Amino acid sequence: MASNGAKIVLAARKEEELKRLKPSICDAGGDAVYYVTDVTKKEQVAAMVDYALQQYGQIDVLINNAGTMPGSFLYKNNTEEWDQLIDVNIKGVLYGIGAVLPHMRERKTGHIINVSSTAAHESVLPGVTVY
User: Fold this and answer.
1) For residues 71 and 121, is the Cβ–Cβ distance under 8 A?
2) What keywords are annotated for this sequence in UniProt (predicted)?
3) Which terminus of the chain has a smaller tally of CB atoms within 10 A, N or C?
4) Known catalytic residue: 131?
5) Mind listing the pLDDT tens digit for each residue in 107-117?
6) Catalytic member of 51, 75, 95, 131
């Protein structure tokens, strides 16, 4: 995307990773800014979308790529891991879609890409049953 001049808003929890990634996009011909965002926080996702609109005026593509894969056996009842998986892998995706959809509907254009793991197509290992 960068080599085609894309304008990209990077979003993640770890600012140091965002700072590290930004120059590679700019060096490849794109324009990039970042917004520290925890996808489990609906307000932060909405603020990131608002920031993207302020920076670039429109959003053409949203890529939902955040995910977590807890590794514990179901019988251990690690409900904190279950909650985190649901908050990131399900709610985080929905928060992103919900935040960007009104803008895309108003413009009558836009793409939402939800990245999933290969586990959707393969046998799940015993230690990742919840996933």
Assistant:
1) no
2) Oxidoreductase
3) N
4) yes
5) 999 999 999 88
6) 131
